[in-house]
Amino acid sequence: GWPRVRVFNHSWDDPASLSTVGEISAEEAFQLTDGRINHRVPVRLNRKVTEYDHIIACGPVFPHEVAGFSGGTKYLFPGIAGPEIIDFTHWLGALVTNLGTIGIVDTPVRRVIDRAAAMVRTPLTCLTLAIHGSDLHGLWLGEPDVAFREAARLSAQLNVVRLPQPVRSVLSMPSERYDDLWTAAKAMYKTEAVVADGGEVIIYAPFLKEVSFTHGRLLDQVGYHVSEYFLKQWDRYASVPGTILAHSTHVKGTGTFDAASGIERPRIEVTLATGIPEERCRRINLGYRDPATIQPEDWEGHDDRLLVKHAGEQLYRLAGR
């Protein structure tokens, strides 16, 4: 039915499939990231972008843990980018933290993404949607910045739930569409902000049996830690891709690490009640709970508990923040 349509898989790790369109210098990186990163990064993306007359990026805008909101020029970077800027943007997001990023339009990562996109000579038009569940509430077609910001403004109204006070425990139930923790981790990202200090997010997904089908080996080696754990032992972890470190810190959440004592103090606890064995949960530095011992209804009707079904679809924040 679509004889002139072709679908290509983006091979981010194949240099032959990428084209360099520019570079962000160390000085510019320092400025864009508010002093967090001061090294250069080549700007590479799928070379097919340079072989067409026009790019149309189509998709929804939601609160996002790395960029603040998804959509816009994010479809280029890191969407179809090379590994350098993928790692750069994700590690930057980790340094800013999920709490300082998600649901915010203007973020350091968004500035880097937009700067990289400005180096692409092929014209870009965005067909941007604001949706709630499966219902379309708004659609914009035009310049990426305008379309993105309008959709983000409406998405912030549609997809952010505000609570009057923090809770001690969240039972966060991701959809069965997620088949590993790497993707189901949105159950943590989008509920972290409403958990009181010393509280807990329980990711309840008995169907989930794998940490990451793509990155599981590395995550078994690195584990899940707060960002200070890596920053204060950078010689040990500098060679680990920034995307891996970012995922690790986003799932673990904020906290501190004392290098002298080796003691790590996360702000909240993250517990897996999944099909991932207890031994592996402990090995990667996450809590474990047997999902058979959990009754989701126990999290309903309590001021200090929260049950979130289809976790990851909406962002939970405290009122006034």
Automatic annotation (TrEMBL):
InterPro entries in the record: LarA-like, LarA-like_C, LarA-like_N
Domain LarA-like N-terminal: 35-92
One GO MF term attached to the UniProt entry: lactate racemase activity
Entry superkingdom: Bacteria
Pfam families reported in the protein's UniProt record: Lar_N (PF09861)
Protein's name according to its UniProt entry: DUF2088 domain-containing protein
Source organism (scientific name): Candidatus Dormiibacter inghamiae
